[in-house]
Amino acid sequence: MSFKLRTVLTVVFATLSLLVIVTIGSIFSKKSFVSVETEIGHSLEGTAAQAADKLDRFMYARSGEMNLLGDMSSLKDKFNAVDIQILLDQMQNSFPTFSWIGYMDPKGNVLAATDGVLLGKNLSERPVFQEGIKGKFIGDVHNAVLLAKLLPNPSGEPLQFVDISFPLKDSQGKTRGVLAAHLSWAWAKEVEESVLAPLEREEKDLEFFIVSKKDNTVLLGPKEWIGKSLVLQGISQARYDKSTWSSEKWPDGKEYVTGLAYSQGYRDYPGLGWTIIIRQVKSTAYAAVIDLMWFNIWTGLAATLLFVLFGWLISRWISAPLGRLTRVANRLGAGERIEIPDNQGIKEIEDLSRSLRNMVSSIMDKDTELVVMQNLAHVDQLTGLKNRTALELYLEDSLEMESEEHTLTFLYLDLDGFKSVNDTLGHQSGDVLLQKVAQRLTALSHEQGITVRLGGDEFLIVLPSVGDHPREEATQYAQDIIQSLNKPFIIDYERVHIGCSVGGAEYPTNSTNPSEIIRMADEALYLSKRAGKNRVTFYSELDQER
């Protein structure tokens, strides 16, 4: 099934343009989602940390006010209930967040209290007294059923309080009573509003939570969450990192971008371990990015239509000269001597491919096959080095240059430790090692010499030399090879070490028979192995030893 070039080019232009636009749009959208999520997450985290700091500073201030009230009550060791009552009323008038302040004797009897609430009652069984008689106590948010019935409550919502209490002692250190206060939890709502107000000008659907350290109970938040336990991975992380943000699914099944901060206290106020959480629904957080994504989609479709039109015009411009080239190619294939005109088109790309292929392949096939077969005959298939056939041709050419100054040095190489690699890592890894060895030998190869793989892990290098010191040159070359092969190889992520022993013989010094010289170099190789491996030995040294 064939198509007109005009049709193919038009479809290709449309497909490529659509692919590029979709790819770029996807990458851009994904990057935008990550960027927006990170930005919002850090913003919510910072706001949560700001709220935590405000809460801690507020509690620190109220704790300091209570300390001041206690110092005033203990002034000159006068613990007069009437004087203390006056101080309590002044404190409540100055700081309305104190819903109730009371003074109890060491047995828990309330001797003075704001608005007379609980006056004469015994609170010895209450935590505010039991903990306060021991030392300074700041309790977590709780419901005070008895106190809530006695205090005004216009809203009708359950009243919650934070307790502060500590012992009052005279100058002799004797406990003379307990000063206690209930802070209205309503001030936390004011902190929430002050923190969220700047954000809500730009962001929507923000929700604020305060979670206690004990059982992760929600102390402040949407009504449906109050008093429930909230389990989030980010809460544990916030208690470890002090502040963090996350994007996770909440128990209600929705995903939120969540900023969290851990209350750490302020100065001598140790904090109650509250976790402040500010969350925003993911879909709301991503609204701007989604709008941008749709804009990119419509823009991409418009650009695709433009590219289709452009591709159709280009295809018309190309197809005319291609048609003319097809007719010329057919005439060439018929044996006519005719030149291919410049800038002359062809009707269809399929016809052009077939005509040119028939014309060129008839000329090039035989030459290509000959080159491939020749290369295969002279090359070792595993390592890509020359083989024995190539070595024979090389020696035929080199031995024709016989002269007193012309020397051929034969270096016979054998890898030390190769069998261990085969046994431990397998033959496939051994083959890879041979290929890497061949690469290093090729990197060191002499311009006019030849490097041959004889078989297994044995190699032969022939070095031509015209000079006064062929032995020194060959020795240095062999040392370079040993040094190179001593460097570690990485095979299948394993660090592999091998060595290399080298034996050398010289033409025509040792013999004029190439086969004999190779045998002599092999004998010298085994002398290197017996002498400790990883070295080079020449056949003349073997004669000296004998």
TrEMBL record:
<dbReference type="InterPro" id="IPR052163">
    <property type="entry name" value="DGC-Regulatory_Protein"/>
</dbReference>
<dbReference type="InterPro" id="IPR029787">
    <property type="entry name" value="Nucleotide_cyclase"/>
</dbReference>
<feature type="domain" description="HAMP">
    <location>
        <begin position="316"/>
        <end position="368"/>
    </location>
</feature>
<feature type="domain" description="GGDEF">
    <location>
        <begin position="406"/>
        <end position="541"/>
    </location>
</feature>
<dbReference type="InterPro" id="IPR033479">
    <property type="entry name" value="dCache_1"/>
</dbReference>
<dbReference type="InterPro" id="IPR003660">
    <property type="entry name" value="HAMP_dom"/>
</dbReference>
<keyword id="KW-1133">Transmembrane helix</keyword>
<keyword id="KW-1003">Cell membrane</keyword>
<dbReference type="Pfam" id="PF02743">
    <property type="entry name" value="dCache_1"/>
</dbReference>
<dbReference type="Pfam" id="PF00990">
    <property type="entry name" value="GGDEF"/>
</dbReference>
<keyword id="KW-0472">Membrane</keyword>
<keyword id="KW-0812">Transmembrane</keyword>
<dbReference type="Pfam" id="PF00672">
    <property type="entry name" value="HAMP"/>
</dbReference>
<dbReference type="InterPro" id="IPR000160">
    <property type="entry name" value="GGDEF_dom"/>
</dbReference>
<feature type="transmembrane region" description="Helical">
    <location>
        <begin position="292"/>
        <end position="314"/>
    </location>
</feature>
<protein>
    <submittedName>
        <fullName>Diguanylate cyclase</fullName>
    </submittedName>
</protein>
<dbReference type="InterPro" id="IPR043128">
    <property type="entry name" value="Rev_trsase/Diguanyl_cyclase"/>
</dbReference>
